[in-house]
Recover the amino acids of this structure.
């Protein structure tokens, strides 16, 4: 990339739907501070935060402050927290 070219990684605010695909992930637990999604192989994504609001099984509002990704055996392979 030339020095004059701009690099735009997220032209808009990223949405939860950009990361979690409803066709591949099922919401199995939802509270105002936790959302747990399970994928087709049994792996899970645990989102921690605040102010989570849901419309059915779709998270529509809230602030994510951490995430834990687990494989189908429950072993964590990625985690972060702010």
């Amino acid at each position: 990339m030339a020095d004059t070219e701009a690099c735009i990684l997220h032209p808009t605010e990223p949405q939860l739907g950009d990361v979690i695909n409803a066709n591949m992930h099922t919401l199995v637990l939802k509270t105002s501070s936790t959302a747990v999604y399970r994928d087709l192989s049994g792996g899970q994504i645990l989102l921690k935060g605040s102010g989570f609001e849901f419309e059915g099984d779709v998270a529509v509002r809230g602030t994510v402050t951490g995430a834990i990704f687990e494989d189908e055996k429950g072993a964590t392979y990625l985690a972060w927290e702010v």
